[in-house]
Input
Amino acid sequence: MNDLNKDQIKELLPHREPMLLIDELKNIKKLFSATAIVNVKKDSFFVNGHFPGEPVMPGVLIVEAFGQAAAALTANGLDKATYDNKLVFLMTIEKARFRNPVIPDCTLELNIEAIRSHGRVWKYKGTAFVGEKKMADAQWSATIVDRK
Output
């Protein structure tokens, strides 16, 4: 399956700047796995306040990026008519571990995998890397809901 750039991701997700965190989705295996790219920049919106002089990407934003990557993987794999007029909402976060701080001016790679699905509920796992260094990992569940 083809890689997705940011414009293509915007067609799948409702997120917009500054909250659209993923820049690319690649190595896509339909409804199973993918690698999301997050370009963590020196001018990212969180840099000035988290923490002044020593910026670190907040762990909650890493989890949000995991969720966005999973939503894009799922939306991209489903039939457009099935996903049309839907949103993906995060339900649970489990086993989230933050192993190393993510410092701006890096490329964060999120390797995500769909573990299982039951109706509109999906469970995923993911691991975040900068280069070969593991930065974080988590499991989470999400549900597909109708837009209002």
The chain has one domain: 4-146. Residues 71 and 88 are 6 Å apart (CA to CA). The helical segments are 6-12, 59-77, 80-83. The chain has a mean pLDDT of 95.
